[in-house]
UniProtKB/TrEMBL annotation, chain A:
Belongs to the isocitrate and isopropylmalate dehydrogenases family. PROSITE patterns: IDH_IMDH. Residues 39-365 form the Isopropylmalate dehydrogenase-like domain. Keywords: Magnesium, Metal-binding, NAD, Oxidoreductase, Transit peptide. Pfam families: Iso_dh. This is Isopropylmalate dehydrogenase-like domain-containing protein. Its cofactor is Mn(2+); Mg(2+).
Automatic annotation (TrEMBL), chain B:
This is Isopropylmalate dehydrogenase-like domain-containing protein. One of its GO terms (cellular component) is mitochondrion. GO terms for molecular function: isocitrate dehydrogenase (NAD+) activity; metal ion binding. Performs an essential role in the oxidative function of the citric acid cycle. It comes from Escallonia rubra. Keywords: Magnesium, Manganese, Metal-binding, Mitochondrion, NAD, Oxidoreductase, Transit peptide, Tricarboxylic acid cycle. Transmembrane segments: none annotated. It is found in: Mitochondrion. It comes from the Eukaryota. GO terms for biological process: isocitrate metabolic process; tricarboxylic acid cycle. Pfam families: Iso_dh (PF00180). Belongs to the isocitrate and isopropylmalate dehydrogenases family. Residues 42-365 form the Isopropylmalate dehydrogenase-like domain.
Amino acid sequence: MIMASQIMRRLLRSQQANSPARVSSLLLGRTFSTESNPIVATLFPGDGIGPEIAESVKQVFRAADVPIEWEEHYVGKEIDPRTQSFLTWESLESVRRNKVGLKGPMATPIGKGHRSLNLTLRKELNLYANVRPCYSLPGYKTRYDDVDLVTIRENTEGEYSGLEHQVVRGVVESIKIITRQASLRVAEYAFHYATAHGRARVSAIHKANIMQKTDGLFLKCCREVAEKYPEITYEEVVIDNCCMMLVKNPALFDVLVMPNLYGDIISDLCAGLIGGLGLTPSCNIGEGGIALAEAVHGSAPDIAGKNMANPTALLLSAVTMLRHLELHDKADRIQEAILKTIAEGKYRTGDLGGTSTTTEFTKAICDNL
Amino acid sequence: MARRTLPILKQLCARSPSLSPGLGSTRSVTYMPRPGDGAPRPVTLIAGDGIGPLVTGAVEQVMDAMHAPVYFERFECNGEMKSVPPEVMDSIKKNKVCLKGGLMTPVGGGVSSLNVQLRKELDLFASLVICFNLPGLPTRHENVDIVVIRENTEGEYAGLEHEVVPGVVESLKVITKFCSERVAKYAFEYAYLNNRKTVTAVHKANIMKLADGLFLESCREVASNYPSIKYNEIIVDNCCMQLVSKPEQFDVMVTPNLYGNLVANTAAGIAGGTGVMPGGNVGADHAIFEQGASAGNVGNQKLVEQKKANPVALLLSSAMMLRHLQFPSFADRLETAVKRVISEGKFMTKDLGGTSTTQEVVDAVIANLD
């Protein structure tokens, strides 16, 4: 029964794909929704507080009339031999088919003989760019009030290739790989993102004065792509200057594009500027236009099931997903409702200094829509 | 002549009783030099590029005013050179102490960084950056008192890169037990000698299991020799996040090369900026003192032209140098004078929110020397 409806849906969507589409959707390879034909998105609620905050997202989307239908998948209890991890083949196929997904926090099971869940997703879906929009939440005061930047991090190679070996006892080598193909890919996405979201400046972060060939190649690729987008200002900043400028004056930056390791550190630094991982949205972009939005915080097993979790990160990630789908008006409405609720300060969860429950917070957002 | 009398007049008129007692001159009552300790010591001085000549000139003026027992052997060296000139190297090897402005490293060119070359040849294996809140300097973060000790010779800065095929480049990050152990030993020794309570190792061993794993192993071994010092480990991205939200939890941090660069610059940024943080590179036999953070950033052209570079960092580094040369009284006087100038807040350069030029700050420091 389920198989039949899936085949039907696939047929319907392939028919729709033949209709004229804009250039950007060709680049990202997806279809549009109509009132009668909602977009199907995969949802991984995850572990710990995952199911509660996923429920929040579903509620808010229902209240906002977002034309999305959720296909829920859970992490399995045994290792699936086809994927070498706890994520089943069906789950991955679902994301490949739907091209959009939302992932809650997943606790990595301890043990050997399987790949980590994040690594499986990244390799199987070829998720090459990690996008984190960081903006100060009005009403939640941190030391920085004027943060409004986006970090785009290359997610497949660089220092995280995992190629290490011991040369002799006490001497270890770790190999950092930069390829033209991956750098071009992430630079293309960065400039495309800047154009699509009205951003004026893209900064490439590097350490090419020391690592001349590797980061030099990354910079060369960024420069090539920058030439194709003359209306966007392009600059290059050495990473130690970037760190310094970020903590002194984050308003100096707009879109940042970086290789893997620097991206990891800088995106977490920016998350710290706005209030931590519990409030930061994140989205992974894959080949063929796949977008998997995720909440980057942990699964918080200690407050699981107690209706205390803060759904902001997952909600803002879902908003990022909507923007990727070009449902900008819905995305704006939901984002405004979230920011308004936090700014008002009447309903805030424990980690923001309030006493509301998850359900109260969600209801306040729905009311503010 | 008028330039020197004005600050003296100001000092005579404006020596207000509102100076907090903590910043008053504190002559140590327990200092006994050995006979001959006062003999003048030669120090190699590399002015460098950009704001380098400006700030090293400031140090020379202050040393002159204090009649400190150091004399400088000046050498010309700039970032465009292919390698450090041999006479500079010989001078440093003879004097064992050097004070450096900034040496610029051109991006992407075929020239290897002169800073890195100096560190490798002289085997300066530890680089310190001391980040602390200066009283009188408003920052977003309070209670910052962090010392970042960074391994200075290997890691990602080994310089071993090659193109495998066109479009694919590899860079080798090398971690050895020998280097990790000696920097860990230095860090714990520093904590022990300076009455510091905690040493934190910064790493990314969840991803780079062998390389950073080896670094952590060395740190843990050394930690077991110092049971009175608390030791903990933190992943580098979490570390940066904690630095911007709760910097008071960190005390001494020991890191491999690249992370140390980032962490030191972040910590310097939250505590007041590169213009005020002192630092130095130290090895078994030699020491080079320079501005703490901002490797290779020698300021922009406008700063040089308007002569508005901040000399505080290099002045504090030269106080470190005086202490290293075992002239603690001069070091104390210089440190106190600089702190007084900052806390009064009248003469501050642009990066600290003021409008003074370098020369005005130097004059203020000289005026505040006692």
